[in-house]
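User: I've been going back and forth on whether these two constructs are worth ordering. Before I decide, could you fold them both?

Assistant: Sure. I'll take them in the order you sent them. The first construct and its structure tokens:
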Amino acid sequence: MENQWVVNRQKPTDTKFPLLENMWIERGTKEDWEKLHEFHYKSEGGAMGARYYKVTMGNTLVGVCVMCYPRGLLKDRHKLFPNIKPGGEDTKLTNTYRYKWLNANVGLNARTVNDPLFRGIGVGYRMLNLAARMDGRKWYEIQSSMSKFNEFAHRAGFQFVPPTPGKLHDVATDFYGTWFKSNPVDQVALIQEFDGMSVAMQNKVLDVMRKFYWKHSSLEKTGNNRNKGTSRVDAMGIKDLVKNINQLAFSSPLYGVYRNPDHGLILPERLPLIAFDEQGLDKPLTRGVSKCV
């Protein structure tokens, strides 16, 4: 198991930014998320069973962390937890209890966002760690392409496995090569090339791109989209199609897990953000914690 983990970073020991002393974390609302969602690189889209946590400084909203139910099937999870991987002998009953166990024991960090005025001072990883502790489940997952560039989740205590290349990579590369000369991963160049096409050619390219995306996207056939048929995809323009196809084919999000050391304990409903600094990442909080009765 150990050789599957990416090297993990330790909790930073740098000097705390003074304003952190005045920040607090507590349960938030969807309205809090909506105030900051435009600053997240995945600004749209919902989360099943969303639970919101906010960081404030006085009356100022500093950041929001969104926890939700985990995905039912996840290949990277099955590398680490092979006992919950579906097998050929599964029944409807075992599948039902697998999902119940996941929902009761595992949470997913769907979004973490800070106001741009408060970035780079250590809010994000402190907020993520404390939100996971306060949310109360035993395990927390994160899947994020940005984790390859911004190590806030590493600093929050999440451990990561190496990404698995997408199966659609070569198929999408060949598809783009049929209709475009630009590098498939250069979304700006693809859109500029599209803008230079004739109207007739644009209509043809949009048609084949919509069919390609619909064929390969499970997102468009599940959840709230499952009853919409192709109507949502048919309404997509070139920017949405390029973004969605490239995310399917070329993104390789890191999968990380954090074991909540406060699982089974009762935490205060409101904590100072610097409570993160008062114990190790794998140790229970020292502030205002009591055992469940």
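The second construct, handled the same way:
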Amino acid sequence: MPKTLRLRAFAKINAGLKILGKRPDDYHEIRTIYQTIALHDRLGVSLSKAGKGIAVECDNPAIPAGQGNLVYRACEAWAQARGWRGGIQVHIEKVIPLGSGLGGASTNAAGTILGLERLTGDHLEFPARQKLAAALGSDVPLFFLGGRVLGCSRGEEVYPLSDLPSRACLVIFPGFSVSTADAYRQAGLRLTEQAGTAYIGSFGTWPQFPLMSWGPAENDFEYIVFARWPELARLKRQLIRAGAEVASLTGSGSAVYALFSSSRQMDRASKLIPKGWLLFPTRTLVRADYHRELFVD
């Protein structure tokens, strides 16, 4: 019988995101503060020494099963790094919406690696694990830290920050996705228009982030996404009027979140959300809770 482990793959929000410019490698230099939240997918990770190959299945038919799935590529990378020659099976129960800016694919990939390490007792050294994760995707490394995390470079260079007191967090998904690639392309055009060049060499410039408080959380993608979907801008204004400490787009969207000092405030604000949009009442997850609640068994 294969060894199986169940775990929670938690989502993230961005408590501020600044795009500094286009890099020589065609990525964008960013600064952001990631914050993990209790909203999560569920993973079942299994190993079999007698089996061969990688199998990834998901209860959402929109999720690819093969190499188009980041979890599949995470399994490949881990097996190659550790010399694993047996079988790997991963089952994904999706809750985090696709294309929402909540890091669903990235947290699934990171959770899979953590599950594989726990099953085998074979843990990568932290630098090697971060390098493997960064090669998979810019948002993957943050999920090895959890809590409040500073993201630099293209987002994959991460540093743990001191946690802030937990807040009630309302996540709203409007039912449509935003392409991260398209959003960055539009951001590049906007930077070109502003600076007259596609490359800004001021990477030493450090944007002002609220390191000791929740807000304001300014996200440069809002200029692009809100122009196309003004209903999201309207929602943000309504949430702030309803008492949100912070309301913002997360990542490149399309989800918007709001932080409240109490669940009662969050419940009242949830009544403002348009019909047909998905609501996820949740909470911010500090680092200690993130790691304590990660594994189901």
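Notes on the second construct follow. The longest strand covers residues 28-48. Residues 196-204 have pLDDT under 50 and may be disordered.
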